[in-house]
């Protein structure tokens, strides 16, 4: 069974003359263990699509099945739980809590409920060492370098072992060597733990590292590009 | 815990606002204490009387100063239905010379021995029928002026003064902002009216014990509760009104300071809170964290202020001359009031936290 299945998703912002059709019927299927890159020009609907998959926006029409459940029908509370339990989101800006240390930023997700704190503490140490952050673990969020911050943000997204990893322009703030490392780390996680990953990027070099590249223009998916 | 960690790591901001709350709560507490202290000066002696009602002459407008009752009226009142015990009390304010050249106005209360109006003596002895020139003085006044048992005070009788001997000390407090002193009612009549005959008033008011007496009237007299009597002491209501206005102003300022502080730090954190929601924090969790901070800031501020206020009273203001008093009830209720004011002040920001849209997590650029 597909982990993520979008069927004919549309999203319009505003009404009447101000109406913008950001997505005009998008259908995507992502299998466990698959990393998909989403590319397209600015304004084409990439962020909108990612927000819908991540439960931050509800589609205007269409359905979205995640592990069989139609997230598009969830109410606000169920969406909050869905984001907490099934989605690991890495935003364009790392958005760490500035007054918490790297490690505390990871442990924070344990406060949102529904998790075993001791297991999370072990998981935090594991992720810190996997991502080369052991030395930075005690540093406050606002003292970390850009690259460290981005890696902490990735670790935070992986803390609760989500089935779906969503990444918005992860490498925008990194040089290409660092960027490649970050994408490699994500790829290992997706392949090793059978997660599904959707990564928005306009860096074609990064996109080439994904299993599949989807291109979106004016709210519509283009014919498949070559897979790697 | 996110809320506590933030407070610890941002000590300056939270320390400052807690400090300001402390100052405001201190002010509110001192004003409350002043109100209590002034009320004590106004009428502890009245509140301490062992009865629940007072009878006044009905043209006195519930003023002990203006109330005058005849012997017939006092008997009439004592036999009114529902009265279990009664005691005639005379009141007059008089300038007492307690040391050569040192004069202070005292509330002279004339009482009958053995009646419910007779005060408890805590030092020295009670008055006896022979003590026509004897006095019981107030404890704190005695310690303030250095007056001791056996001392002689000059009490004005007509245009002259007469020596009265201090035979004992009572702890009834004060009356009309003057220290209460007790003498035999017969002596009070001479001090008050100089020559005494059948036309001379017999008492100022009558203290009563009994049920259902409130509102009872007779020929030229009326009965009210002791509470009503207290609030009708000249100045008490106005003074309490002023104190209350100051107190509410302080609480309002406290609510606004806490409200503005949390409004500002919430605004600063909107993006961060949006991100936390986007990664799975519920609005309830984030609001609870905010509430915890509001609660801690106002509670810690007020508790420190309460400590400071009690300390101030115990040290700088320990003298009985300064009318500031604290009761546990007043301190606790003021603390609760400040915390409630803080929570109300920050309510808007707390609602705002709950309604932040997590989509803003995606709208931020590096
Ligand atoms: N909140 C919004 N209100 C109105 N229009 C929006 C909003 N967000 C995005 N849009 C519009 O939707 C379209 C797609 O935007 P977006 O999903 O951000 O594209 P991309 O991420 O590919 O740049 C754009 O035309 C954009 O202007
Ligand atoms: Mg975008």
What would your notes on this structure say?
The complex is a heterodimer of chains A (228) and B (366). In chain A, the strands form 2 sheets. Chain A has a 6-stranded mixed beta sheet with strand order 6-7-8-3-9-10. Chain A has a 4-stranded antiparallel beta sheet with strand order 2-1-4-5, with helices on one face. Chain A is globular, with a radius of gyration of 17 Å. Chain A contains 7 helices and 10 strands. By secondary structure, chain A is α/β, with parallel strands linked by helices. The model of chain A has no long low-confidence stretch (mean pLDDT 89). Chain B is an alpha+beta fold and 366 residues long. Chain B folds into 2 domains: 168 residues, no CATH class; 160 residues, no CATH class. Classes of the chains: A alpha/beta (228), B alpha+beta (366). Chains A and B meet through helix 1, helix 2 and helix 5 of A and helix 1 and helix 7 of B. The site of adenosine-5'-diphosphate has 12 residues of chain A, from strand 2 and helix 1. Magnesium ion binds next to helix 1 of chain A.
């Amino acid at each position: 069974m597909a982990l993520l299945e979008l069927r004919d998703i549309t999203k319009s912002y505003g009404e009447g003359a101000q109406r913008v059709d950001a997505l005009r019927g998008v259908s995507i299927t992502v299998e466990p263990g698959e990393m998909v890159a989403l590319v397209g020009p600015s304004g084409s609907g990439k962020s909108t699509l990612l927000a819908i998959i991540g439960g931050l926006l509800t589609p205007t029409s269409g359905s979205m099945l995640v592990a069989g459940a139609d997230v598009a029908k969830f109410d606000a509370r169920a969406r909050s739980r869905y984001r907490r339990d099934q989605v690991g989101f890495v935003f364009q800006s790392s958005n760490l809590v500035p007054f918490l240390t790297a490690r505390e930023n990871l442990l924070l997700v344990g406060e949102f409920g529904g998790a075993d704190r001791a297991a999370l503490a072990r998981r935090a140490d594991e992720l810190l060492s996997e991502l080369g952050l052991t030395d930075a673990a005690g540093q406050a969020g606002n003292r970390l370098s850009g690259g460290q911050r981005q890696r902490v943000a990735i670790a935070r997204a992986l803390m609760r072992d989500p089935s779906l990893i969503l990444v918005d322009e992860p490498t925008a703030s990194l040089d290409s060597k660092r960027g490649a490392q970050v994408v490699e780390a994500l790829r290992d996680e997706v392949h090793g733990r059978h997660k599904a990953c959707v990564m928005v990027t306009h860096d074609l070099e990064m996109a080439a590292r994904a299993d599949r590249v989807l291109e979106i223009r004016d709210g519509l998916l283009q014919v498949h590009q070559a897979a790697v | 815990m996110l809320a506590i960690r933030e407070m610890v790591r941002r000590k300056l901001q939270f320390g400052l606002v807690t400090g300001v709350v402390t100052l405001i709560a201190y002010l509110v507490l001192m004003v409350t204490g002043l109100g209590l202290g002034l009320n004590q000066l106004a009428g502890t002696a009245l509140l301490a009387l062992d009865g629940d009602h007072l009878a006044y002459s009905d043209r006195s407008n519930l003023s002990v100063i203006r109330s005058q009752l005849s012997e017939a009226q006092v008997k009439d009142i004592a036999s009114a239905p529902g009265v279990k015990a009664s005691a005639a009390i005379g009141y007059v304010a008089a300038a007492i010379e307690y040391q050569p050249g040192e004069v202070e106005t005292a509330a002279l209360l004339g009482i009958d021995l053995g009646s419910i109006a007779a005060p408890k003596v805590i030092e020295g002895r009670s008055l006896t029928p022979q003590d026509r020139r004897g006095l019981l003085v107030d404890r704190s006044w005695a310690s303030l002026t250095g007056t001791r048992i056996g001392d002689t005070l000059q009490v004005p009788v007509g245009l002259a003064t007469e020596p009265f001997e201090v035979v004992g000390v009572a702890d009834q407090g004060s009356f009309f902002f003057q220290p209460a002193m007790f003498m035999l009612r017969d002596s009070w009549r001479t001090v008050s009216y100089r020559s005494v005959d059948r036309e001379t008033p017999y008492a100022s008011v009558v203290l009563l014990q009994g049920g259902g007496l409130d509102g009872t009237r007779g020929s030229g007299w009326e009965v009210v509760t002791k509470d009503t009597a207290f609030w009708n002491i000249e100045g008490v209501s106005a003074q309490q009104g002023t104190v209350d206005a100051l107190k509410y102003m302080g609480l309002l300022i406290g609510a606004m300071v806490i409200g503005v502080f949390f409004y500002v730090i919430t605004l600063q954190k909107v993006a961060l809170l949006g991100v936390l929601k986007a990664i799975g924090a519920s609005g309830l969790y984030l609001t609870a964290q905010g509430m915890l901070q509001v609660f801690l800031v106002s509670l810690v501020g007020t508790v420190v202020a309460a400590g400071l206020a009690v300390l101030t009273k115990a040290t700088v203001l320990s003298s009985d001359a300064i009318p500031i008093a604290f009761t546990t009830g007043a301190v606790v209720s003021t603390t609760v009031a400040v915390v409630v004011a803080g929570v109300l002040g920050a309510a808007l920001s707390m609602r705002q936290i709950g309604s932040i849209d997590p989509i803003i997590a995606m709208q931020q650029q590096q």
